[in-house]
Amino acid sequence: MKLNFKKFGKGCPLIIIHGLYGSGENWFTFGRQLSKFFTVYLIDLRNHGSSPHHHDLSFEAMSNDIEELMSNEQLDYACLMGHSLGGKIAMYLTLKNPEKVKKLVVIDVAPRAYIKDGNIAPQVQFHKLIIDALINLNLKTATSRSDIDKELSYTISQPALRKFLLKNIKRSHTGDYFWGLNLHAIRDNLAGLMAEIKSYNTFNGDTLIVYGSRSDYVNENDKQEFKKYFNNIRFEEFNTGHWLHAEEPEKLMNLLLHFLPLNER
Questions:
Q1: pLDDT tens per residue across span 29-69
Q2: Cβ atoms within 10 A of the Cβ of 228, count?
Q3: Which end of the chain has the lower number of beta carbons within 10 A, N or C?
Q4: Quick check: is 209 in a domain?
């Protein structure tokens, strides 16, 4: 599948992979700053942003999309950076084809399953609530974005989260509102998106794991799981929640500039 993406800058290729409900636009400010040193690719995953929709939302399918982009762009390798779901996909692609990845950055997600033996982690319950709330919104009767925001506030109280989610509202040429997200595909594939990353391969390249101390996506036990697959790994903890790039953008940028290969052209 050919993904929608923006490309800018010069230097070692850096592919930034957004999280669930996101798009490449979420990383535009980071991308512009990093483009001083890298050729940055801000991608929209399938069923997100302006990329095509498809019922298959597996790690395999999404990593294949990125490899197709790399092939079309004639990239032998790239640095990968992914947040949340994007981090899962980045890990999957790296372990599937380690030779295609120069350095790996994973932001606030672990290789483990968030649904295991019938036990559903709080993160999954959170996503179920979001998906149901978005699907149940009646966009046909909406006359403004403020109407949509008001209706969504009855189920999702956090204004910042609603603002993030409502970036996916689009408007047709006739003025009707619709979702850019493929919500039904996300709902039907949610268990797979929360599954464990498994591989017989390991990755010897530099790997940076950044996580928030006030987030519950990465814990101390997860560090041992990371070490099974990533042989040259570094952990950095931020005093943030899950969206640490929004809470501590300057700190994350400084960390990335010290970790990624600035001098490669």
A1: 999 999 999 999 999 999 999 999 999 999 999 999 999 99
A2: 11
A3: C
A4: yes
Domain shared by 22 and 89, yes or no: yes
Closest alpha carbon to 13 in 74, 99, 92, 94? 74
What's the confidence (pLDDT) of residue 173? 87
Rg over CA atoms, the chain: 18
Using CA atoms, how far apart are residues 101 and 212, in angstroms rounded to an integer?
A: 25
Question: Are residue 49 and residue 163 in the same domain, yes or no?
Answer: no
Q: Residue 42 sits in a domain of what CATH number?
A: 3.40.50.1820
Give CA–CA dist 46/3, Å, rounded. 7
Inform me whether the pLDDT recorded for 242 exceeds 70: yes
Cα 33 to Cα 127: distance, rounded to the nearest angstrom: 31
Question: 225: burial class by Cβ within 10 Å (0-12, 13-18, 19+)?
Answer: middle
What 3-state class would DSSP assign to 140? helix
pLDDT for res 115? 78
Q: Which of 5, 12, 7 is nearest to 257 (CA)?
A: 12
Q: What is the pLDDT of residue 119?
A: 65
Beta bridge partners of 41: 7, 15
Mean pLDDT of 235-253: 95
Say how many Å lie between the first and final Cα of the chain, rounded: 28
Pair of tokens at residue 146: 């403020």
